[in-house]
Amino acid sequence: MAAHKRILLKLSGEALMGDDAYGINRATIVRIVREIQEVTQLGTEVAVVIGGGNIFRGVAGGSVGMDRATADYMGMLATVMNALALADTMRQEGMTARVMSAIGIEQVVEPYVRPKALQYLEEGKVVVFGAGTGNPFFTTDTAAALRGAEIGAEIMLKATKVDGVYTADPKKDPSATRYTRLSFDEAITKNLQVLDATAFALCRDQKLPIRVFSIFKPGALKSVVMGHDEGTLVHV
Ligand SMILES: Nc1ncnc2c1ncn2[C@@H]1O[C@H](COP(=O)(O)OP(=O)(O)OP(=O)(O)O)[C@@H](O)[C@H]1O
Ligand SMILES: O=c1ccn([C@@H]2O[C@H](COP(=O)(O)O)[C@@H](O)[C@H]2O)c(=O)[nH]1
C-alpha cells in the first residue's frame, strides 16, 4: 500500500551513467524505469524532474570561460535529452509518459502547461519535466521543488548518488554521519550541499518535505513510496 498519492521524483542525471564515464547507460536507465513502474503499479501518481549532470553542467562551461547563462541553457537542453531517453525507455517498458519542457522547443517536446500536467497525472501517465525551471542560474533541484509545489505533490523524493543527507559531503569526508531526519532550517544553516539552498528554501516555504535516498539501492524507491524510513527526511 502506497503512503503517497502523488510524488515528485528528482532523478540524478549522473546516476544515468551507471559505470560509464558520460551519457546514458542502457541497463541503468532500464533498471530505474522498472523501479518507477513498480511505484505506478502501487497507484501513486509520478512526476519526474531529471538532472543533466551526466551530459553538461553550466558551472563547468562557466569555469572554462563560457558565458554562464549560455552554458546553463546548454545544461537545460541536456536535461531535455535525458527526459526524452527516460520517456522512451518507459514506452518500451509498456508505460505511458509525457515529456514537458520549460523552454520552448515544440518540434521536440510539448511545453510545460500546468493544467495539462495535472491532467496527465490524473490519467495515470508519468510526466517527465525537462529543461529545469527554464531559467539560467538555477538547478534541477530547484525545478523539482517548484514543480513539486505546483502539482501538489505530497513529497519530493531526491534519488541521488548518496543514501541520504550527511553532516558533510560523504564523498569528501569519510567521517561524515547520516541524518535520519532534519529540519529545513538546519539544512540551510549548516549549508548542507546535497541540494542547493534555493531548493531547500522553496520546499520549506511550501511545506513540501524531501526524502533523499540512493538511486543505486535496488527497491529503495518503492520502499520510500510505501512510507518506510529510507535515507533522510528533510521536513519543516
Ligand atoms: N551534506 C551532504 N550530504 C549528502 N550529500 C552531499 C552533502 N554535501 C554534498 N553532497 C553531495 O551532493 C551530491 C548530490 O547532489 P548533486 O547535485 O551532485 O547530484 P544530483 O542533483 O543528484 O545529480 P545531477 O546534478 O547529476 O542531476 C552527492 O553525490 C554528494 O556527494
Ligand atoms: O532551472 C535550471 C536547471 C538546470 N540548469 C542547468 O542545467 C544543468 C544541469 O542541471 P543539474 O541540476 O546540474 O543536473 C545545470 O548545471 C545548469 O547549468 C539551469 O540553468 N536552470
Automatic annotation (TrEMBL):
Family according to the record: Belongs to the UMP kinase family.
All copies of domain Aspartate/glutamate/uridylate kinase, residue ranges: 5-214
UniProt xrefs under Pfam families: AA_kinase
Residues that bind UMP: 52, 72, 133-140
List of residues binding ATP: 10-13, 53, 57, 160, 166, 169
Entry keywords, A to Z: ATP-binding, Cytoplasm, Kinase, Nucleotide-binding, Pyrimidine biosynthesis, Transferase
Record's protein name: Uridylate kinase
Broad EC category: transferase
Record's catalysed reaction(s): UMP + ATP = UDP + ADP
Quaternary context: Homohexamer.
Gene Ontology CC: one annotated term: cytosol
Signal peptide: none
Subcellular location per the Swiss-Prot or TrEMBL entry: Cytoplasm
